[in-house]
Amino acid sequence: MDPELEAFIPFFPKADLADPAAQRKGLAGLAARVPPPDTTGMEIEDRTVPGDPGVPVRIYRPHGARGAVVWLHGGGFVMGDVDTEHPWAGRIAAGSGAVVVSVGYRLAPEHPFPAALEDARAALAWTAAHAAELGVDPGRIAVGGHSAGGGLAAALTLWARDRQGPPICFQLLNQPQLDDRQESWSARNFTDTPWIDRDKVTASWRHYLGGTPATPYAAPARAEDLSGLPPAHIATAELCPNRDEDIAYALRLLQAGVSVELHQWPGTFHGSQALLSAGVSQRQIAELSAALRRALTD
Known about the structure:
18% strand, alpha/beta, single chain, Rossmann fold, 8-stranded mixed sheet, 298 residues
């Protein structure tokens, strides 16, 4: 493990999703301790976009933005909202120069699949329909997210391809949660890794699926056909249960003719970029922002 990250391990909470309500409070507390992003010269607005029910979004509008990303937070499908995502959405907007539409999708287990995906679809449709209002090119709309949000972003690209939904030009997947089967080497062996381990991933999928069989729109790794999807940037952490399923997904995208940039960060663990004082965390956030900037401005 990167020594700068290892020093913080004793302060990380135990991985446990048995009580989602308690974990939501814990995540909110952690997010509140992250230094706020520099949003100088950026318009930030909270809105509710049409959906059933309405979907809360927080919009970050840097001056001169040409493209936008529908951004989906992490939290194992059971935690997180636009407030806990503020440190990351703001940094992505500042670093990429893109409009970020951060989505407060409904959470499991109260709202199992497909509620979160429906909210993500509503946010994508609203962003495409309001591109002129946002000041961006409707052909430069990306989707992205971290962890469960990365899985939702991948599912959203499958849905948009299959249903001729709003065009998506790029997918930015950071340590995405893609496969409920947990059959990869990293999923089977990382049982005591910080923040996220096998048991927490298992509980996350149980809450999200609600006892129903997984489909590719819930677990994108189950999709048989990955052709025709937008170019992807996939980032993985070395000590993360999701690592191998993410690498396998990247390879399958490549084999389906999809352009992919894959970045495996050695010495990191799931969500360790929250430790902003570590040099590797700073490089991770900078690279995610740069990848989005390249996709939306070139």
